[in-house]
TrEMBL record:
Protein species of origin: Apiospora aurea
InterPro entries: ADH-like_N, GroES-like_sf, Lipid_raft_assoc_Zn_ADH, NAD(P)-bd_dom_sf
Protein name: Alcohol dehydrogenase-like N-terminal domain-containing protein
Pfam families (UniProt xref): ADH_N
Top-level taxonomic group: Eukaryota
Matches recorded under SUPFAM superfamilies: GroES-like, NAD(P)-binding Rossmann-fold domains
Region (Disordered): 272-310
Residues annotated as domain Alcohol dehydrogenase-like N-terminal: 17-102
Amino acid sequence: MTTSHTRPVPALLHEWEVLVKSHVIGLNPIDWKAPDFGFGIPTLPYTAGRELAGRVIQASRSSSRIKEGDNVICISTDYRDLRKAAYQEYVVSSSFNTVRIPPFVPLQSAATLGVAFVAAALAVGICMGVDFSHTADGPDLLELVQKNAASSSSSSGCYQLPDDIRAECLEGLAPGERALPGDWVAIWGGSSTSANLAVQLARLEGLRVATLVDTAKHGLRLSAHGSPLRPDLLVDSHDPDRAVAILRASLGPRLRFALDTRGRDSAAALGRALRQEKEKAPDASLAVDKDAPVTPRQSPRPASKGAPRAHLVGLTGLPKEPAGEEVVYHTVPIKLYHEAPAVGEALSAWLERLLEAGALVPPDVVAVEEGFEGINVGLDRMRRGRSAVERPWSFWSSRGYRDSVCSRR
């Protein structure tokens, strides 16, 4: 990756766009994987970068929420629009994809959020159907999408769901299958940033979480962490077969939801955990107390035709094996965030409220590099797996907030 000093400041083309001076840039693993493996680069030359924290220098003409001078997070899931790419001194962002940062949250900490939050919120809110309205006036994403999604003959004012995410948003969950407070969800790769945020969001809404990690590296930190990051059940993922056996014995048919953040192999293991012999009694030596108290907000599950199916969400891949009748595979509809303004605005404004209330804890910052040149250093660190405790994120900070690149937990 090379640095150019001749590119013009990107222009605002729509009334809902803002111009931001970047101060801290997030390094996403896809930014080294895309060129190395030849995907996700729609044109050359290409400017990478998906998230940053900075200051608004030109406000939107249509949004009253974002004002000039605000410190903000810009979340660019729209990788085809290079004006929104983060590896620039000045960046364009849609106002509904822009999040104001509370004054007590450092910019480097704010930059650890972004795409990971959007992915986690859509995975839990759309693919699992969790209603966030109980926490900081959050959105019921599934209801929001289904109410506002336009058919091919709809009137203006609604948005047209892209064909590749339409089935996920409208047909992924049958009536009575939405996750409710007290339900269990297994999250594989609990040390990753997306998993970190998914655990927090799930626990905020009363779900019980089984986190699967390499406990030799991450077990003590996670088990000792304060709520909402501390899992209800911590499982060592070093031996996948053993991890599956623990989930089956501990939770049995109560485990209906799973989120994988690692890859196809771990997703396949979660699929095996979800496909259980319902009549087989759990191993008492491993079982979680079925009478353990759950949140008082627990709601009765609506009656559905037949037994509710299990649901597996893959952030980085899904099993090769067919899903079958017991399990539904889900892919996170990440483009909803930038293609459906109502969804983008709801998530961005909710993240502001979560940060303001201290209800969501940004992942830890664990390493620093300097300047634009530090971007390549940070990406190379991720390639080699040498970021602290193998966290896959790094950050760059521009002049005015110290020149640095930092990595996070």
